[in-house]
Specification:
alpha/beta; 3-stranded antiparallel sheet; 15 helices; 42% helix; globular
Length: 342
């Protein structure tokens, strides 16, 4: 197949969050843990504490693991810095990974991932910092291709998200949005209105959110492992496809809501829970995923003029790849015409 593309990860971070599992088993929700100072804010503390070289070494190991699972291109978001210097630190690590690793890496700046503790209760003031300080500096230093924002109950409202994304667009950054992960507050509609390149998660998206995605040419980047891990519903992939929305499937690798970077598991879940066909899943993991990060003209299909990124599988077709679970089925990986895994 074409080399698989993971169009949504948070791969540069410090620490893990296994200590949250007992809280979740007792019924604490994702947003309750965040509002108590855990969740993303816990990872922010651990990421801020690491040096750039430490973050790089850790992330390089994750990329090696992704490559062994057949992924040849990945997107990485910042968002565990939540201040100018630490967002720049994360994004410099992402740039360094792209230059040093065999994989292609696309960078997304996500300073509006949560409200940092120093701005607790002052979300609008933090949005001011994002728009007036962080994003202009990131754009000036060419540290990111895209800007993402977490449009969600208790995080950033639709209007706050709109301000972040419109600022990013004026600075020359492409637009992505974490939309309707927990509640359908209008993130999908905003993505369609702004013609974002992708809207991500979409677990809670209702009928009023699907049509704007189609009319805005937005790729729906769906993350089935997150639904599994958070014990949430699964996004309405079949309705999205039926209404003309291009669907990509990604991992959402991060230390809190999806500590897995195995894109093969995402394929299994897309088959079983999204009810996508093997052909739709292959497209979602290759060409549609490439389009979700602006690389559809270069990767995502096997044809003359495109980059020779290939994954060879111990399987006789996509149906078997979608059916088998728990085993790495990669036989070899070719990146830019060179065998890198065999």
């Amino acid at each position: 197949t074409p080399g698989w593309v993971d169009a949504h990860t948070h791969l540069v971070f410090g620490g893990w969050r296994q200590h949250e599992i007992p809280l979740k088993l007792k019924g604490a929700s994702y947003l309750e843990i965040l509002q108590a100072g855990g969740g993303i804010l816990d990872t922010v503390r651990q990421t801020r504490a690491l040096r750039e070289d430490e973050l790089f070494a850790r992330a390089q190991g994750f990329l090696d693991e992704q490559l062994r699972f057949g992924v040849t291109t990945t997107e990485i978001k910042s968002g565990y810095g939540l201040d100018l210097e630490n967002e720049r630190k994360q994004l410099r690590v992402i740039r360094h990974l792209n230059s040093e690793h065999a994989m292609d890496v696309v960078s997304t700046c996500m300073p509006a991932h949560a409200v940092p503790p120093e701005f607790a209760g002052r979300t609008d003031a933090y949005v001011d910092v994002v728009c007036n300080e962080i994003l202009p500096r990131i754009a000036e230093e060419h540290l990111a291709c895209y800007c993402d924002v977490f449009c969600e109950t208790g995080v950033f409202s639709v209007e706050q998200s709109r301000r972040v994304l419109e600022t990013a667009r004026a600075l020359g950054l492409g637009l992505k949005i974490h939309a309707d992960e927990i509640d359908a507050i209008g993130g999908a509609r905003l993505a369609g209105e702004l013609c974002a390149i992708s809207a991500e998660h979409l677990i809670a998206t209702d009928d009023s959110g699907i049509s704007p995605l189609a009319s805005g040419g937005v790729t729906a980047c769906l993350l089935p492992q997150t639904s599994l891990y958070l014990n949430k519903d699964f996004a309405r992939a079949r309705e999205m496809i039926a209404r003309g929305v291009a669907v990509a499937v990604a991992s959402d690798f991060n230390p809190g809501s999806c500590p897995s970077l195995n894109l093969q598991l995402s394929a299994n879940l897309a088959y079983l829970r999204y009810r996508m066909t093997p052909e739709e899943i292959l497209t979602a993991l290759t060409l549609n995923a490439a389009c979700a990060i602006g690389l559809g003209d270069r990767i995502g299909s096997i044809e003359p003029g495109k980059q020779a990124d290939l994954t060879l599988w111990n399987a006789d077709g996509m149906e078997l790849l979608c059916y088998r679970m728990g085993s790495n089925q990669v036989q070899a990986v070719v990146k830019r015409g060179k065998v890198v895994i065999k």
